[in-house]
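pasting for ref. prot 1 ->
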Amino acid sequence: MVQKKKKDTDVGRVVLSEHQLARLRYVTTGEENGLAILLLECAEFTDGIQQLQLLKKIGSLLRKLGEDSVNDSQIDICLDILVRIYWDLESRSPLKRAIASALSGIPEKLKEEVISCLTSCLRDELLTVDKSHVRKVIDSIAACMENFSVGEECMQYLYLEVLQFLHTTLVDFQLQNKKLGGQHILQNKLMHDSLVALKAVMILVQKVQQKIHDVFCKNADPSLWEAMCGLLTCFIEILLDGDFLQTVQSTAGMAALLFIKTIVDCDELLPKLVHDLLFNSTQRTHNVPEWLIQSCGKLYSAVPPDGAVLFLSQGSLAMLDWRSGRMRDSGERLLLDILNVLLSLNTRLKESSMAMSVSRNLSLWTTSALDALHSDSCSQYLKNSLNGNSEAIQKLLEYIWTHWEHPLDGVRHQSKTIFKNLLKIHQKTIDGFCGMTDPFFLNMTNGLLSLEWHIKGKYISLGCLVEHLGTEYILTVVDTVPKQVLGVMLEQSLATYASDLLEKMFVSHKNQLMSSSQSSNWMKVWHETWISPFLTILCEEKPSRTTYLIEYYLPKLLKCNPDSLTCMIKELQSSDKPSNIGPFHSRGALGALMTCLRAARAQGLLNTAEESAWNQLIPISLIKQALVHKHEQVRLDALGLVCETHRSTEALSQQEIELIKFFLPYNMNSQTPAMRQQIVWLMRKLFSRLRDSSQVLYKQTQSVNRQKNTLNEEETSQHPELKLQQYKNFMVWVCDRLLQALFPGASFPRKFIVLNLLGIIAEVFENLEDQTYSVLQITDVLKPAYVDALLGCLNSTFEELKLLAYDLLKKLPATILGLQDSEKLQTLLQTALDLSTSTKPYDCITASYLLSLLVQQEGLLPTLHACSLKKRTGYLSKVHEKQPADEEMLETNILEVIKFLLHCLSEEIRQAEKSLVHMAATNPLYGRVHCIIGALQQLSLKSVSNIAEWRETVARLILMAFQLSAVVSPICQSSSPEGLIPMDTDLEIAENLQKILNEIKPRDTNDYFAQAKLLKTDEDRELSKNTSDDCKPSDDLSMAMTDQTGQACQVTAQMVLVCCWRSMKEISLLLGLLCQNLPLQSTPDSEDGLLMFHQVGEIGKYFKCQLLQSRHRGAFELAYVGFVKLTEMLTSCNNSDLQKLPQQWLEEVLQEVKSSSPASKLCATRRSAGIPFYIQALVSSEPRGSNLGLLKLTMKELISLALPSATRQDEHATIPQVHALNILRALFRDTRLGENVIPYVADGIQAAILGFTSPVWAVRNSSTLLFSALITRIFGVKRGKDEHSKKNRMTGREFFTRFPTLYPFLLEQLESVANTMHSDSGVLKLHPSLFLLLLVLGRLYPSPLDGTCSALSLAPFVPFIIRCAHSPVHRSREMAARALVPFVAVDRILHMAQSLLETLPAPTDLCIRQNHIHGTLLQVVHLLQSHFDSKQRTNLNLHEELHDIIGCTRAKIWLATRQNPCMLTRATFLDVISVLWHYLDKSKTIDPEILNFWQATHLIILESELFTDQQKFSPVPGLIQWQRSITKLTLSIMNLMKCVF
C-alpha cells in the first residue's frame, strides 16, 4: 500500500548568544549528562528536531533534581538561560512548548527562581517601544497562560502591568486602523493582532478574576481602576467603530461583559446593569456606577448601533452565569428580553456575516435557556415562558421555518441546533410528562409531515424529532414515510438530506426493535420497512434515477446491518427469473444484484480473495451478462464489482482478469461522457490495486525464495511468481489492445478512453524509488508505429485529446519518441512553427503542445538555429558549446523559443500594420502568442536563474502585447466588429475593399443606438439606381487575394474579426499569466523581481482600455480573466501604492459611468459590453474577511443610478441608468461575491420593477435582464422542467422576512397595478409592472407552519391580486390566479374560494364581463387544487365547508351551460367541477347533496355540444380548452359511476 508522504514541520531553532555560551562553559562540570552540557550540545545542533529531543531530555533531568540542587549556581544559570530561550522562541514553536513543559516540572523549591526569571524577562518585554515587536510580546503573554503553570503564576504577580501594556497596545491599534484605509494586507494584519490582544486580555482577566474581585471589594488600587476602565472604554470604542472586523467586535463585546462581571460585586445588580446597557434605558430604577457611565458613556448617550447591541448580547449570553441561578428574577427577565432583541435585529441586519452572527447568538440563547432551566432556582414563570406553546418559543420556531433553507450553510446549521435545543427546552418544561403524547410534539410532527418533500429543512427537523422521540413515533403518525423519502432520493438536490434522515430513522428503528419485547422477530420487520421498498425501486426505476439512492442510501444501510446483504441476494435471486434483465427502462433483478454486490464488496462484506469465491457467490455467466447489459449503469456496476475492493492490496484473481478482458473490447467506444469517465475511474482503481498487490506478492516471493531450501515445496515458491507473471501478461495485453485502438479514423470516445487508460498506466506503474517491483513499464510495449499514433493525437481537433496525448508523451524518454534523431526533431519543430501561423485556430493549439514537448529535449537549440537559417528569419539563436545541466536545459530552451517567437511576431506585427487583412488571411497573429503562453506554463517563473535575460524578455513580451493590441483593438472596439474590415495602407487592397466598407459604415458613438433608422423611400430607391457601381454594396462580402505560396484565398470580415479577437484573447491571457506567475519588485528602486511596478501600471491601463471600450464579447470576456489575475496580484502584494490601485480604478470608472453621455467611449449597447466585467473584477478582488468597502461603495452608487429619477427622462440621460442596471446584473450573478450581495437584493428588485416602467427601451431591456438575475439569486437555479414546481419557490413568510423592505414596495406597486384593471371605456390598459409583480408573487407558496404576524400580514395583498385577475390579458389572469394561493391561510382557502364563487354574476345580470369571470374561476381552480393537494387536514368542518362550495358551484352552474356564450369561461368552470369530483372520488363520500351535484353535472354533459349531433363546432376562442375540459369531466363522471353504481 502506498503511504502518504509526511509533511515536513518547521520547528524552529534554538540559538544562544556568545555571552550565554560563555556562562554555560564556565559552569560546566565533568558530569557527562549535566544540565549545562546538554544545553551546550543543544546549541551546537543546527537541526530543530535534534534540539527538541535534547530539550525533552533536559525536562526529564529537571524533574529529577533533588533538594540539594536549590542553591547550585549551575542550575541557576541553566534555568535563567532556559527562560531567556523561552522568550526568544516563536509562540507556536514546539521548542517553546518543550521548554514550558520542562519548566513546569521542576521541584517546588526551584519554582520561585524560575518565576523570578520569567517576571524579569516579561517586565523587560513590556517596556518595548518597537511597534513591530508588540505582536511577539502579546503572543508571549498568551503563551504564558496556555498550559504553563509557572507562566500563570508569573501573571499573578504582573497582571496589572500586563493590563496596562495591553491597554496601551489596543489604543495604539485603534489609531493605526484609522490611518490604514485601503491597505488590505496591513489592515488584516492589524485586525488579527487586535483579536489576539483581546483574547489575551480575556484569558488574563479570567485567570486573575478572583484576585481582581478581591482588590475591588477592599480598597481598589487607582492604577487597577484606570487600567480596567480604560480597557472597557477600548472595548466599547471597538464595538462602535465600523472599521473593525466583526470577529474583533464580537470578541470586544464578550470582553466588555467579562470586565463588567468582574468589577460588579452584586449578582442581582449585574443583569440590571447589563439590561440598561443593552436597551439604552433612560428611566433606571437603580443607581448606575459612575465608572460604568464613564467607560460606556457612548452607549448611554445615544442609541447604540445594531452591531454593538448584537455583540453585547452575545457577550451577555456567553459570560453571564445562567446555570447557577444567582441572578434571580432579573436574570430571567434579561434572558427573555435578549431573545426579543435578537429577533428584532434579525429583521434589520441583512448582511451575510451579521445574519450568521444573529443565528449563532440565537443558538447560544437556547443553550443559555437550557442552563437556566437546569438551575435549582428556576421559577415557574420562566418555565411557562419557555414552554413550546409560549410566545417566545413560537417566535423562535418562526425563525427556524424562515431560515432552515437560508443560502448560508452556517445559518442552516444553527437553525438545526436551535430546533434541537427547543425540543430539549420544551421537554424540560414538561418534566414528568411523556413526550410521546404531548400535544406540542404531536402537532409539530403532523405539521412537518404535512409539508412538501422538496423543503430541505423538513428532513433536518424530522431527523431531530427522530433523535428525540424515536422512529416508531414517526411511523405511528405516518407509516409510509420510508417509501416517501426513498422516492425523494431520486432527485440530486434532496438526496443527501433524505439519506441522512433515513439513516437516523433505520438506525433508531433497529435499536428500538432490538430492545422491544418482539426482539426475536425484529429482522423481518426491519427488512420489510427499509429493504423491500428499496429493492422495488432499484429494480423498477430507470437506472439514471437511482444513482443517488445507490450512492447515499445503500452503503449506510449495509453499514447499519451487514446481515441485510444476505436478505437482498436471496430476494433478488429468488425471483421468477434470476437472470432477468428487466423491462426496457429499468435495470431489473440482475442489475439490482450487481449494484448490491458492488456496494457490499467495496465495504469489505464479501470475501473474494480465494479463486473459488466467485463461483460460490454468483455464477460468472451472470457477471458477463451484466458486463454487456443494455443499460450502461448495469455495466458500470458489474465493472465496479470486479474492480473495487475494500483493501487496495487484494490480489486479482484469474477470473477477474478474464472478466476485464471480456469487458474492454465491448465498451471502449462508449458514447456517453459519464460512462467514459466512470470506466476510466474504475480502471484506475484496478491498476492501482494491481500495483499494490504486486508489491506484496513480490515480497512474498523474496521471502519464500530465502526459505526454499528448508521448505522443499516448489508450489509454494512458484505461486506468487505465477501470479506476477499473470499480472505482466495481462498488462501487456491491455497496452497492446489500447494502442491498437488508436488506428486512423478512430472516434473521439475510443481515443478518449485509450489515452486516459494509457496515461493512468504510465502514472501508476512509474518506476519510483520506493517501489521494489514494477509489473510493467509502458516503454516496454511501445513500438515506433504506436509512438507515431500518439504523436498524431496531438493533431486532433479535440483539445481534450491533445492534452491527454501530451501528458502521456512528456512522460516518455526521447529515445522512445525518436527525438534523439536531429532530422525528426527538426521536422517536428518546423511543423510546430508552421502550425503556429495557421488560419485554423485548433492548429495553433497543436503547435503549442508540440513546442511544449520539444522544449524538454536536449538537442532543441541546434535544431532551432537550423530552422531559423532555413526560414531566413534573421534570428541568431544561442548555440551552447557545452550542453547545460538538466535543471538549466528546460529554462534555456524555453527562453530561446520565446525569443525566437518574439522575433517572428515582431516582423509579423510590422506587416500587419501595413495590411491587417493580408495577415488575417495568411498569417494570423494569435498563434504565436498562444505558443508563448504554452511555453511559459512549462516553467516556474518565480525560480528562474538567468534574471537579467528574463527581465529583458518580459519587457519585450509586454511591449509586443501592447503593439499587437494597437493593431487589432480598433476592430474589437468598433461598434460593429462582426462586419468590419479596416482600411489598409496598401492602396491596391484599399480599393478592393471599398465596396465592403460602404456596406458596413460603422459608427462608434453611443448615440448610434438612440437615433431612429428610417426605411428608404421610393425617391431614395430611384436615387440609388443612379449611383455608380463602385459605391454600391457588394453581395459578396469577401475579396480575393493570394497567400505566401501564391495560392488564392478569400478574405471575409469574419476572418479579420477572428484574427483580431483571438489576438486580443491571447494578449489578455499572456498578461494575466505574467501578473500571476512573475515575481514582483519588492520596492520601486530595487533590482529584484521580473515584473516592474511601472509595468504593472501599464498593464492595468491596458486592461481598463480593453474592458471599457471593446465591443466584441470574446475579447472582453477573456480580458476579464487576465484582469482578475492582475487584481488578485495587487491585493496580495506588500506595496501599499499597488494595493490602492483597485479602489482608485473603481472610483474612476464609477465616476465615468455617472457622467456617461452619447459622446462617451463607454459602450451603452451589448449589455454595456466589458464595463460590468471590469467592475466585477475590481469588487471581487477584496480579500475575504475584509469589511467589503469596495462592494458597499459600488452597490450604493449603482443602486442610486439604477433607480428612476425625474432628471433622467430622455434617452441620452438614461445611459448611466442602463450601465448601472447591467453592472448590477453582473454583480448579482457573480458566485465569488456569494451571499455578500443579498442585502442589496431588495433594492435591486425595486430598481428592476421601476425601470420596467421607463419609456426608454434600453432601460426596460436592462431592467428585464436584472430582474431575471435577481429571481435566480432569490429562488435558486431552476431545477426542473415544471415552471410552477415548488422546488424554486419559498413561502410568503420566508420571502418577506428575508426582504422586509419589499413588503410595502410590492404592496404599493400592486395597488397601482390593480387600479388599472377596471376600465369603463373598454380600452386595454396594461401596466408595465403587472407581469413582474405577478411573477414574483407567483413564486411564493403557503406553508402550514406559517404563524401570524401583524407586521408582515399577507392579507392586504389579497384584494389587489383578485383585481389583477380581471386583466384583459390571458397570461396575466393565469399568473394572478397562481399568485393568490400563497396569500391565503391554509385554513381559509375553502372560505376564499366560496367568496370568489359568490361574486360571479347571475345569468340575468346586465353587465357580464367574461374577463372578470375567467380570472375569478382560475383563482377558484388554483385555490381548490392547492387545498386538496395539501397533506394537512386541520379543519374539522371540512365536510360542511365542502357542501358550501358545492352549493355555490351549483348556484353558478349556468356558466358551464350554453347560456354562457364564452367557451373559455365554460371550460374553466368545468375545471372547477372536475377538481371537486376528483376529490369526491378519492374521499368516497356520498350523500344527498353530492348526488344532486352529480345529477346537475350529468345534465351539463348530456346537454353540451359534445352529445348533440345538430351542433357543429365553430372555430371560436376557447373551443380547444372547452373540449379538453368537457372530455376530462366526462371521464371522471364515468369512473365515479363504475365505483359507486
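and prot 2 ->
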Amino acid sequence: MGRWTLHLSVGLVLLAVLLTCSRAEDRYCFASRAKTCSECLQAGVGCAYCSEETYNGPRCDLHENIVSHGCKAASIITARSSQEILEERRINVNLQQSQVSPQNVMMTFLPGEERNLNVEVFAPEKGPLDLYILMDFSNSMVDDLNNLKKMGNELASLVEHLSNDYTIGFGEFVDKVIEPQTDMRPSKLKQPWPDSDPPFSFKNVIKLTSDLKEFTEKLQKEQISGNLDAPEGGFDAILQAAVCGDKIGWRKDSTHLLVFSTESAFHYEVDGTNVLSGILSRNDEKCYLNASGFYTKAEEQDYPSIPTLVRLLGKHNIIPIFAVTDHSYTYYQKLKEYFPIAEIGLLQEDSSNILQIMETAFKNIRAKMSIRAEDRPKAFEAKFMNLNGQAAQYGDFNFQPGQIGKFMTRLKAQRMIDEEHVCKMRPDEKGGVLRVKPTTFSNGVRVNATILCPTCDCEKTVIRNAPRCYNKGDLVCGKCQCHKGWVGPFCNCSGSASAADTNQCKAPGMDEPCSGRGECQECGTCICYNPNQFEGPYCEYDKTQCNRHGGFLCNDRGSCVMGRCACTAGWTGNACECPTSNQTCLDSKGVICGGRGKCVCGWCECQDSGIEMTSSCEPNFQAHFGACEATRSCVQCQAWKTGEKKEKERCDECPFTVIMVDELKKEEEVSESCSFRDEDDDCTYYYTVTNPGPLRNHLEVQVLKKKECPPASLLWLLPFILFLLLLLGLLLLCCWKYCACCKTCFQSCLALLPCCRRGRMVGFKEDEYLFRQSLLTSDHLDTPMVRTGPPKGTDVVRWKVTDNVHRGLSHPQALIKPNPKETIPFPISLRLNRLFSESLTHPDSREAEQLRKEVTDNLNEVYKQIPGAQKVQKPSFRMQRNAGKRQDYTIMDTALSAPRSSYPDIVKLTEKNVQSGNFHDLKVVPGYYTVATDREAAGAIEFQEGVESVDVHVPLFVKDEDDDKKQLQVEAVDVPLGIAEIGKRLVNITIIKEHATNIFSFLQPAYTYSRKDGVANIPISREIIEDGRTQVTYRTRDLTAKDKKDYVTVEGDLTYGPGETQKIVPVRLLELNEKDGLLEDKQVKQFVMDLSNPRQGAKLGRYPRTTVTITDLPEPSALMFKKDFQNFTTSDPSYTIPVVRTRNPDSPATVKWRTKKAQRFELSGPLKFAPGETEKNIVIDPKAYPSPIQPETFQLELFDPSSNASIGDRKTTVVNVTDGVPRSPEIAQMAQMGFINRKAASPGGHLLSPENPKAVATGPRSIRLNWEPPPGNPMGYKVKYWIYGDPEKDAQVLDVKTPHADLTNLYPYCDYEMRVCAYNAVGDGYNTDVIPCQTLEDVPGEPGRLAFNVISPTVTQLSWAEPAETNGNITAYEVVYTPIDDDMKPVGPAKKVKIDNPKKRMLLIENLQNAQTYQYKVRAKNSVGWGPFRDATINLASQPARPLSIPIIPDVPIVDAEAGDEYDGYLMYSNEVLKSPVGSKTPSVSGEDYMGNSKWDQTFLFPGGSGTRNLSASSSPMSTLSSNYRGAGGSFTTETTTTYLSGPGGSRRQDVIGGGVHTSEVIMRKRSENRGYTDENIRDSIVMGDQLSKFQDLGGFGYTGMQSSSQSHFGYSLSQGPRARTQSSEVSDALYSLDRVLQDARLPPGIPDTPSRLVFSALGPTALKVSWQEPHCEKNILGYCVLYQLLNGGEMKRINVTNPAENSVIIQDLLPNHSYLFKVKAQSQEGWGPEREGVITIESAVDPKSPLSPMPGSPFTLSTPSAPGPLVFTALSPDSLQLSWEKPRKPNGDILGYIITCEQLHGGGDMRSFQVNGDGAETSLTVPNLSENVPYKFKVQARTTQGFGPEREGIITIESQDGSALSQHSSQSMTRREVFHLPTEVSTRTNISHTMLDDPFFSDGMMMTTQHTETGSMVTRQITKEVVQRGVMGATTVTKKMFYES
C-alpha cells in the first residue's frame, strides 16, 4: 500500500484509541506500549490482548475497551491470579496467649493488583509478660539504685498486677572501658568512686525469673560504678539484651518489655570508631555475654546505630520503655519516634517514680496496637485498615485485651518501581513470605505473596514472512513484527528509502511538514511537538478547537479528537450537547413525549395542539388552573350559548369542539370530570375532558346534554333553616358564658357531645437531650411529640424553639442586641400536597427542576408582601418519616432573606397561607410549617386522625461562637385546631462543644471570575488539627446572579481523607444570552457559596462564605513597562521605551505616563491601546529640548489607567543615557541633521523593522521565530539572539532570506532574547523590539561532584551538588550504591534510594560491608524524566581515620544498608540534632548560645547549578552552617549550627562562574582525641613565638573582615596590596634577612637563643601539652626548664627536662577556666638562655556546685587573650579555600593586620605567606593554588603596634573523588553574588578595593573588585572579575574591557 493507505490506517487506529480515552489512569495497559502479548499481560491487572488478525483497535488495553472495539471474545487473552488460605485455626479466647487467625495464606498477584485479607488478633487480659530492667550504673545514678532497692515489694506487686504469668530480670550498663569514656588510671579502674564496682560496659545481673524473692536479694548486692564522659554506652546493653535471648531469658509467647533507665545521653555508631582512631570494628550484632553476664566485646566493637536497634528490637519483639530524667528527655523523645512502638516517661532525679512510669507505659502499650508487615518483598506495599476500609495509623487499633480484634490487610503489587517493571526484578524482590503481625506479638500471619508475570502461548506459534505482513515480517499473536529495514503496521514501508523525504509529512494543501507543529520522522510519520495539544497524521488537528456548548469544550462531556468531539457514553451531537437516552423526554406515564411529539437532542418537539404543553408534550393545565377551568368557558358557549364567550366570534376561537352525549364516560377513562353552575339559569352542567392521544391533536370534550336544576318546591325550607341556625347560636353563646372564656370548660362542654366525651393530651415524649457537637451529623433534631386519648379527630400543635436559654439576662452575649435591619436568611419548611418521588432526590432531574420552579415562583409571589424581602433560595426536597399519614408527602426546605425585624410577619404570613392550603397557586398540606432565624424558630405539626406520634424537626443553631455548653428549649405553645390539651410542654437540648478536629474555610471572602473562564473553581481549605476523615457541606445561592441564567448552582458534601487539605468545587458559568448581551448598563452579577454542617468534630473557620462576582469581560488589562531598565546613548536620535499589555487585549485601554528626576525635561502624556494591540512605545526626542544632551539617569512612571485596566508589576522603568558614538560617521551625521526617522523610510533608505514578530519554543534546544516583512523590498533578514542577561553586543547573528528562522543548538529551559532587522542594498534596517522566549525543558544533566564524609569503614555521608544544567525544576534524586570487585563488576545487589525532596541532597548510609568497595551513582529528575548518573567509587576502609562522630544532621535521610528489602523503612529524617558533640549535656541546636560558641546563619541566592568539595580539617571549631538556597532549579534549606566546640561540621560556599553556580560543600572535621598525647591527636593548638615577626611587611593578597559571635554580624572587605602573592624563595630570603636585622643585641657565644615556638595543646579540661622548638645555639643544648603559675599570682611550679631530645611536657593538674603564665628556656654549658613566655587558658564546663571541677565529658578548648580565634576553613574549589578566624580578645596593642603562612604538612613545596591588613572582628583570606588530597598546615599570627602575637595553627585537606576542574577561566567571565540575611542591627558600611591577581587561570591578568554594602537587615557582597585584554595597534595602546554579569 502507498503513503495514503499508511496514513489512513494509522489515523484510524489513533482515532479509535483516542475515542475510548476517558481517564488517563485507566489506560496504563495502552500506555505501556506493549510490543508483545506477554508484555501486555504483564503491564498490569485487567490488561487484555487481542490476537485477531483483522482487528484494527489497540491490541493491548483493558478488557472492556478491547471488546468495545470489536475484538471477538475467542481472540481475547487475559490472565488471572489466585488466593488461598492454607491454615486457619480459630482463636481460642480461653488460651491466655497472643493469637492470630488465619495462620498461613498464599496469594498470587498480577502487577498492580490489590488483595485484601481479613485478620483476627487476640491479646489476653493478663498474658505472659517478660519485664527486663536495664539501668544506668554510672555514679550519678547512685540515689536511683538505692531507691530501686527499697522498692522490692512495690515492684513485686506491680508485676503481679500486670500479669498472672510474669518474669522479671535486671541488667546494668556504664560504658566502654577505654579512653576517653573511662578514666584508665589503675586506681580508678579498680574503684572509680568510693564504694563502687570497677567500670564495665554491660552486665546481665538477673536473668528473667518469676522468683521475686531471688530478684530482690540479688538486686541488694549491686553497687554503682562510674565513667568519665556524660553519654553512656546504653546502646551496647540494649543490643546484647535483644540478641542474647537465651541468656536473658525471653520467652516465645510473652510480651517483651525492656525498661531503659538513665539520666544521660547516648553514644551510637562511629563514636567508638572515631574516638580510638579507627581501631574498633563495626558491631556484628551477635551475643557476647560470658558466664558472669558481662559483655566481652565492648572494647573491640563499636556502638550500634539507631536503625540497627530499631531493626533488632522489632525482630525480637521487644518494646522499649525509656525512663529518663529531664537532662536527657529531649534526646530520647526524638529517639522514641524511630521505633514502631515505644514509650517514654520523665524520671525523677532519684527514680522514685520509676514504678509509675512502668505501669503507665504498660497500659499505653496494651491500649494500642501497631500492625507491621515484616520481611516484605520490595515489589509489595502493605496497608492496614479497619473493617470499614479506613486506613489505620499507629494507635488506631484500640483492641481491648481479652477481646478479639479485627482488621484488614491490603497488599498491593507494584507495577513499576523506580521506572523498572516488577517482572524485570529479581525473584526475591517480587515474591516471598511476609509476616503480618502486631508489633507486640511473636507470631503472625504468614503470607506467601508472589507476582505473576504471565506469558502468551500464541507467541510460540510464529508465521514467518506472513502475507499479511507483505512477506516483510512475521505474524505473532495477530501482529506483524517487521524485519530489519521495514516499518509500519503491516511492514509495507521501507525505512531507508523514505527516511529523507519530508514531503510525505505534508498534508494536502499544507506547505510545511507536519503542519509546522511537529517533526517529520521516517516513512512520513509526524511526531507532534506538543502532543497534548496537536494530533493527527500531520499534526493538523488542535485539541482545543472543537465545538463548544455553554462555553465548555465538547460540553465537558467528551474530548476533542481529530478536530471533532468524541463524546463519552450517553452523549452525542457536534458538541456532545445531546444525551442519547430518551429518559429526559418521558412523560409522567413513561411515554416518549406523551405520544404527541418527537425527542430531539433530549428535548421534546411537540405537535401544535392549540393548548399549552409541558416539556414532555403533556397538556399544561397547571398553567390555566387545571383542565376543567381551562375548558369551562368554551364548553359553556358551545353547549348552552352562555358564559363569557357566548358571542359567536369569541366562541369560534376555542381549540376544540364539544360532543353532546346522553351519558358521560367513567371517571377512570378520562383525564378530568368537570361540573360547573351556569350563572344564567342556576343549573349545573357536567362534562369530561380527555387528553389528546398520539393520533389526535385536540382535546376530546363530552358534555352531558341534561343539566341539573334546583326544584322550586324547596324554597319554603329556607325560613326553617334560618330559625334552627339562630337557635344553635343561642345555645353556643350560653355555653361560652357559662365557661367564662375558659378553654378547658369549653372543651368539657364539647366533650358532652357523643363524639367528644373523652379529652386528649399532646406533649413531648422526651425530657432532655445531651449531644457532643463533634458527633453531630445534622443541624436538626427530630424529637417525637405524642398524643394520648381518643385518636379521633385532628389536632394541630404550634411549637417554638429558643437558642441559648442557659444565658441569663445579664450575660454579656444576651446584652448584645442584634441589628433589626440586618438582612438574614430565614429557613422555611412546608409540606407540599404531593407525594414524594425518587426523582426528587436528584436535584438535576427534570421533575425536581419543574417543581423547584413552581415552588420558587409561588413563594416569591407570597413573600413579596414582606418589606425588604429578597427572592427565596433554591428549594430542596425531602421526606419526614414519623409524620403520621403524611410521611409520604414532600417537604420543601428553602430560605428567605429579609430584615431580621420581619420575623413575626413572616411567621404570621406563613401560618395564614398554610392553613388555607395554598401558597398562591401552590398546594400545601395544612398544619405543618417551620420558620427559623439564627436564634429562634416557630412552627406547627399536625396529628391526623388515628395518629399517636409525630416528629418535630427542630433546628439546633450550631455556630462557631457558641458557648462550650449551650442549651436550647423547645416548647409546645398551643393547639389552635383540635381539642387536645398540652401535657409535657418543654424539651431541653444541651450541646457540649469540643475542640475542633478540623477547620474548614474558604481561602478568601470574595472571588472574581470572567464568563469566558467557563468555570469558577472555588477552593475550600481544611486546617488539620487531628487527622482523619471529615466532611463539610457546600451550597451556592443567588444574589444578583441567577441560577440557570448566569451560573449552575451546586450543592453537596465534600469528603476529605487523611492528609487532604484542599479541594476544589467547580461552578459552571454560563454565557450571556443575546438579550442580556445587548444591555449596556448590566448589573454586577454575584452569587455566594456557603459552608455548613461540618462533621466529625470539624468547625467552620474564618471565611464560611465567599462571594463570587461574574464579570462579563475578562480580567482588566495589565499595563506595564516591558523592561526594568532602558539603555540609550547621547548619540541616539530618540529614546523608545516599550509598554506592554497582558490579559484582555480585545478591548481599548489607556494609561498615562510621566518622567521623574529628569534634568532636561519634564514630560507626560497618554498612551492608548487599540483593541488587539499588546505593545506601544513612548518615544522621547532628546533634541527637542534646548540644553545639550548629557549622560543622565531618569525614570518613567505609569499612572491613572482606564477603568478596564490596571498597572502591572513594572510600574516604573529606569532610563540610563550614557556617552556613545553612532555606528558610522555618515549615519551619525544624518542623525544629527535629522535626516533619519525611525518611523519611516524613504525609497532606497533604511527599512522599517519587521512587524508582529513571534517566537515559539519547538523543543529543548530550538525556537521558531516568525515575523511579517516590512514595507519595501528586503533582500534578507538578520536575526540576533542571545541568552537573557548577556550583553546584546555578544549576540549570535543568523542571516535568513525568509520571514522566519529556526534557532537551534540552544540551551534547554533557558530564556533567550531576539531582535530581527531587514536589510537591503542601503544596509541594515531598524531592529524590532526584544522578543523573549524560553526553550522547553529537557532531562537534567548529571549531578555535581559527589562528596563522601566517611564516618567509619561502614558508615558514610554522601552528598552531591545540583546538576549544573538542571534543564527545568528538579523534583527528585535517586541514589544507587552497589558492591563491586576490582574489575568494577557487581558482587551484590544494587540498592536504590529515591529522595523525593530535591532540597535534601545528602544521604547517610549505615551498615555497609566492611572493607568492601562500592560504586555510588546519583541522578536527578525533572518533569521530563531522569538525567544521566554521576558515579564515584570508594572503599571506606581505605580512607584515613576520622574524627568524633557528628550529630544526626537535621533533615538528612538515614539508610540502613543491611535492612534487607525493607531498607526504605529506615529512610528516616530527624527534625533536630539528636546529640551534641561528645561530652556536651546540651545539644547543639539552633536557637541556643553558650559561652565559647558562635553561630551564624547565611542565605545564598543563586541562579544555577553547583559542584561539590569535601574538606577535612584539624582545627578547633566544629562548624556547620544554616543556609537557605534559592535558585532557578528550586530552593532548599539545611539547618545546622556553627559551634566552636570540638567535633565536626560543615559549611557551604558557592561561586557563579560563566552563568553557572558551583557550590562547594565543606565538611569540617576535628582530629580524634587520644590520651596518648601525640602531635597528630591534639584537640586544639595555639603557637606562641617570634619566627613570623621576622617577616617584612610584604604586599600581598589582602583580605579583611569581621564576624561577631553574639549578634551574627558578618562583613567582608579587601585591602589593597601591590601584589597578589610572593614566591616562596622571596619569603625565605626575607625571613632570613629580618631574622638577622630585627634580633636584639646578640647573646654571648654559646648561650641558647629564646625557644622560637611555644605550642600549647589541650588534652583535657585540666591537662595540657606544652611544646617548643629547639632554639639556635652554637653549643649543645643540655636541657630545658618549664615554669608556670596562675596569671593572677600563686606558686611558681618548675619542671626540668634533662633530656635535650625532648621538647615537650604534659601537665595534668591545671584548673579549668583559669589563665596560666608559662615560661620556657634552654640551657647549655654556657648557661641559661632567655625565656619564651605565653599565657593560656583551658575553657570547659564546670560543676556549678564546684567551680574547680570540670563536668565529665564536657567539651574544652584553648584560648588566649592575644591569639587569633579558632580557624575555620571553607573549600571554594579543588585548589582553593577560604580561611577565616576571629580577632584576638585582648591583643597586645592595636592590631595592624595578620601574617598567615601555609606549607604542606609532610614537606614538599615551598612555604607561602600572606599579609592581611585591618582590624576586623572576623577576618578571612582566600588561598589559591593548592593541591587536592594534600594536607596543609596554616598558621595565623596577629601583628600589633607592640609586635607579633601568638600563632593559631590548623591543618586542612581538600579531598576529591574525581579530577574534574571547576572551570576554565581563560577568557571566561565570573560573577559571584552572595546575600546574607542578617539581623536588623547591622550597620551600614561600604568598603571597595582592588587587587590585581597574576593567576594562571586567567589570560592577561584579572581584576577583582569587591563591593561590600550593608543596609538594614541585608548584607550584599558582589565580586566582579573583569578580564582585561591589552594589545598594541600601531603606536596606540587599546584597552578593551568586557564586563560579564550572570
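The longest helix spans residues 717-739.
The longest strand covers residues 1914-1929.
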